[in-house]
Amino acid sequence: MAIPRLEQTLHTVPFLHALGVRVDESRPGEILLALPASPENVAHGGSVHTGAIYTLAETAAKVAVSTHPVLASRRLRQKSTKAKYYSSTKRDITARATITAEVEHVARDALATGQEAVLEIAVRVLDAKGIDIAEVTVKFTLG
Known about the structure:
Elements: H1 3-10, H2 14-19, E1 22-27, E2 30-35, H3 50-66, E3 76-85, E4 93-98, H4 101-112, E5 117-127, E6 132-142
């Protein structure tokens, strides 16, 4: 999906629109989303709010699965999300999610035997200087 169309689709979700989520890069099964460190997205001390970080990462994982040529047509259910926060930042952030060959292989094997596939998508969150802010793992089942 082209970046303007994908961004327009994301902005149909009022919360994502309010956060100012942007699509910086998009390929099938891979996405780079960005979030500005705007006044609406920061905590009391001026750092990007952890809720905004979490939302950006979780959305990136969903979009990566939803744009993957093999996985997109399947029913996706989110099961859990775990976040490790490494640093705070007052700068814009990005979240990159990629459906790796290993994740695709696990999904294909499970689905070929009629089972639900369990996917764990790792999302890396960086600030504008490339500093690690968080690592978020989103677990889905795919049927």
